[in-house]
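Reopening this one. Same input as before:
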Amino acid sequence: MIVVNGFMVHTLKHRIRRRGFFHYYGPLLCTLIAAPLIMADLTRHVLSDWNVWQWCGNNTDFPRINQTWDEAAAAGDACRWSSTMYRCDVPCCVPGTWDGQPAGTYPTLPLSPGEECTCDVCMSPGGEKMANLSMIGYLFTIGFTYSGFTMLALGTLWNASIIKKLKEIGRKYRELRAGGAPIRSSSKARVTSV
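Same output, byte for byte:
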């Protein structure tokens, strides 16, 4: 993104300043806005990996002790602002008492014979689907990432004057279909022979 924004700054000299601030700086502003939007979900992952922004599980910030996401939500919506991307469908199993809390503070979880009590898994296999995204998952994946790529496409296409170039291609196409007779164009460049 640094290279893209550097290129956009470099191409400012080819834009016409007297057409106004937004015309001059618009493509650059679009790509500058796109960069943090695209990087937001990656930053969420890093903050979660470093335990700066806890995920919904075995922690004091967003406890989901011996519960699935929906059970934790029913008990007070504990996980809404956690960094968890999906609504967990596997209970976060914590044996016995937890973090010095008195017994009975959190629900107990019956285990099948041979079943391991762990809080390292959030989703069952194949459960990581768009329909299972949490509020943070929708916000970062759909909201930030997709709007960032939209702003990036808009800024780069605007900087390339794509609309003007497509109009010129259309004019040249109509000229060729008309038998080679030049068609009057508003642009300075004119094709007179084919």
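So the earlier flakiness isn't reproducible anymore. For the record, DSSP finds five helices and no strands in the chain.
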